[in-house]
Amino acid sequence: MRGLHRTYRTTVGTLRRRRLEVEAVRGIDLEIGRGELFGLLGPNGAGKTTTIRMLCTLLLPTSGTVRVLGLDAVTQAREVRRRIGYVFGGDRGLYDRLSAYDNLRYFAELYALDPRRMRARIGEVLESVGRAGREKERVEGFSRGMRQRLHLARGLLHDPPVLFFDEPTIGVDPVGAREVRQLISGLQERGKTVLLTTHYMFEADSLCQRIAVISRGRIVASGSPRDLKSAVSDRTVVEIEAYGIGEPALARMRQLPGVESVTVENKDQAQVVSVQSRDSVQLTGRLMELLQGVRVERIGTREPTLEDAYVALVTGG
Amino acid sequence: MSALAATEAGSRGHFWRVFLIGGLISYRALFYWINPWQYVPTMLAAPLFQILFFVYLGRAAGVGSTAFFVVGNSIQICSMSGIYGMTMAISNERQFQTLSPILATPSNRLAVFLGRGLPVLITGFQTTCFGFLVSALILGFRPAPAELPMLLLTVLVTAGSCTGFGMALGSVGLRVRDVFLISNIAYFAVLLVCGVEVPLSQLPGAVRGLAQFLPLTHGIAAGRLLAAGRGGGAAVSDILLELLVGCCWAAFAYLLFRHFERSGRRTGAFDRL
To answer: From the list B14, B98, B104, which residue is nearest A81 (CB)?
Structure first.
């Protein structure tokens, strides 16, 4: 990808319609090597799916070039489509009234698979995603995880050399997600080139050789997971598990000297607050002062993770 | 290229497989009324009551013959499959969000598109044949046996032209969210405009002109000539006109589909429901 831009035009308002332009991707330069497993990380609306859809020939760039295996995704779209598999997350995108087998059979026809090998190949991909034995069941009765595996099977059906995974483990239970990750890892071992978008840092950390972090349509950092972590290696993270921390207290935390970022994650009834700072010794005491009257279950310091690096990059902290 | 693709995605063999097998699979996937619990009331019972209603209305009002209403309504009911079936078969891809995975394949778009029409055409043909059969049993409708082959050909051609018209509506559904509202209007509009219940000669000139470009008009005219025993020769021109209208609608529908595919890539419209 070179100088890739994508702008969407839309209108707002009913009587007075106003035209809006939304820049989803603002100049991405990225090269992914053959056989590489590359991760694209970013918050919602950062431009990950838009980028993948341009690579899959489903969307034209407003400007810039997209090449897959040396083929232009705009002018040689059909050639590119023969060589790629596209797997997206979520429970839509399948024919509910058909069985898993028929869903795959339809796409096997569209990908012009050898009719003599079609049945065996469908069996192989269903086996590889752990759905063998349930291929005659209608998809409408499938759980989200089962549907996701069927998406995967469809992407692998024609054994493409390049695969695009757009949040493939979203909504999948932990055991299922681990199996999906093993499958993706196995693809890379078989020499496939994989581009993966995900929200889960540990997933990118464990799978990807290189990662790019995308924020507001731009790549803000790229490199190996270790490279990205090293960007925040001079920091420590104070993690607090507490109940009932209000927004005013969080705002005061952000204003404390040395604090780079404050993020909150809800875990059941509790809040887990991560405070990144270059000075954790004095910070812990100051935080405890701020949290007087709040029920604190746990407070401690830890080394920054890839997630902390990601937070620092996308929040500019 | 993929190691498993034995046939070139643009080859003739691939075209026919996608047209026939792919078309049948997508019909099973997207045609709501395929289930007997929906097929019988929607595709058989409701059309049957439509035929009976208009025949008895005509008899009570003392206008038109039984054959006039039987032929008009029996042929018109094939548009139920053509209009609604094709709207479902194309525009529901958007609802199921299966359009992107299909468009990401190298498949022949013409085969994908036309393949959906064949099962719908056959369904429409069956519906009209059922209408004629029941009319023969209940209403005493008796066309001359010598006219039956041409009458069946007329039904086949008319079911095809309705399918072509439905393809255009389905293509519109790729862009317009509530396309079934348009399909509803289209279904009832053809009932009035195409001479199903009212002879074309009694309709205003502009409506008569419009009817020439719509499916059913020429098929129904041919059907009435055949039912009256006027012979196949008299009906040939109307059958050919019906065929031409159907082909034009199908070609227009395919161009519309390709236009929306291209503009969808440009605007990102397929990402939005």
So the answer is: B104
